[in-house]
Design brief:
Blueprint (H helix, E strand, L loop, with lengths): L9 E7 L6 H17 L4 E3 L27 H13 L2 E11 L2 E9 L5 E6 L5 E2 L2 E2 L14 E3 L2 E5 L8 H9 L4 E5 L3 E2 L1 H26 L2 E5 L2 E4 L8 E4 L3 E3 L5 E4 L6 E7 L2 H9 L25
Parallel strand pairs: 1-2, 2-3, 9-10, 10-12
Antiparallel strand pairs: 1-17, 3-4, 4-5, 6-7, 8-9, 11-14, 12-15, 13-14, 15-16
């Protein structure tokens, strides 16, 4: 009886970093850390959501559209050089200018030869105090994507996407090995005082649950530091805590809550097969009786 070829374990690196008010400095810091991660053996490198700037969505300000860039553009140019020089795969989250007046919160997947493999555009767009993303970003129109890379089948999802089991499940059904969640999440001062530890724990728990329910690896990369780009706003304290977990939901490695760091983890994609043999959730799905998942909550036509 033949068996599937075994895959070599790979080293992933999550770049947990602070942002300042100069996009060029942020890009330089990101490329330097990606370069360092590659030299230390990483073959898959992931940056945080909107890494070129402070988290500007804390207020609705039309001037912030000047931060957007095209794909390809200056960020992809710089990171393509790193990818090509070290033969690594890089996930770069950007504020994408698609056309005049149309913008997206996106991730670019850059391959080992420096090629642009593809783009994912954030599908779920939040609109909450301090997170006014609907003002800036059109919802993604490319669907939930899985990209074939030299290190496996990777599905990038972005921040608010991480709370939705549907997104993770669709990626798994499309045969993703790794879900990657670049994010910019933290506490408003009032939130931290009232419910800080519970919010952070829920954030970790939901993503670990996606790993378990779908038998995949999850990589979640956040920023750190306090950002208050608008004097009238309360600011946000980003809680870091970037982590990597396996298909059992076990944390392989986790970053601190305060420090800039490159978080490394070794992952063995062969573990996906072994895990799914024990927990065959995808096998036992009842797709013949899931039609109600397409209904809106509150639909009054339920039988």
């Amino acid at each position: 009886m033949s068996s599937s070829p075994q895959q070599t374990p790979l080293i992933v690196a999550l770049i947990q970093m602070r942002m300042d008010d100069d996009p060029q400095r942020n890009l330089q810091a990101a490329t330097e850390r990606a370069d360092e991660a590659a030299k230390r053996g990483a073959t898959l490198i992931c940056l945080p959501e909107l890494f070129r700037s402070r988290y500007f969505c804390q207020a609705e300000d039309p001037l912030n559209f000047e931060l957007a860039e095209t794909i390809p553009g200056p960020s992809t140019d710089a990171l393509q050089r790193v990818a090509q020089a070290h033969r690594v795969t890089i996930l770069a989250p950007l504020f994408e200018k698609r056309s005049k007046g149309i913008y997206h919160n996106s991730v670019v997947v850059i391959g080992q030869t420096g090629q642009l493999i593809g783009v994912y555009r954030k599908m779920h767009i939040p609109d909450d105090p301090g997170f006014y993303e609907k003002f800036y970003f059109a919802p993604g129109d490319l669907g939930f994507k899985v990209f074939e890379t030299a290190v496996g089948r990777v599905s990038p999802l972005i921040c608010w996407d991480q709370w939705f089991p549907e997104a993770a499940r669709i990626a798994a059904l499309r045969d993703a090995d790794i879900l990657v969640y670049p994010t910019a999440i933290g506490w408003l001062p009032s939130d931290k005082t009232a419910e800080g530890p519970k919010q952070r724990d829920a954030w970790k728990t939901i993503q670990r649950a996606h790993a378990i329910a779908n038998g995949v690896f999850v990589l979640s990369v956040n920023r750190v530091g306090f950002e208050q780009p608008y004097s009238a706003g309360p600011g946000i304290e980003f809680w870091g805590s970037s982590f990597v977990c396996d298909p059992f939901g076990e944390i392989i490695n986790e970053a601190s809550m305060e420090a800039e760091e490159i978080l490394f983890a070794t992952i063995d994609l062969n573990r996906i097969e072994r895990t799914r043999r024990s927990w065959p959730f995808l096998r036992d799905r009842r797709i013949d009786d899931y039609q109600d998942l397409l209904r809106r909550y509150g639909d009054k036509t339920w039988n």
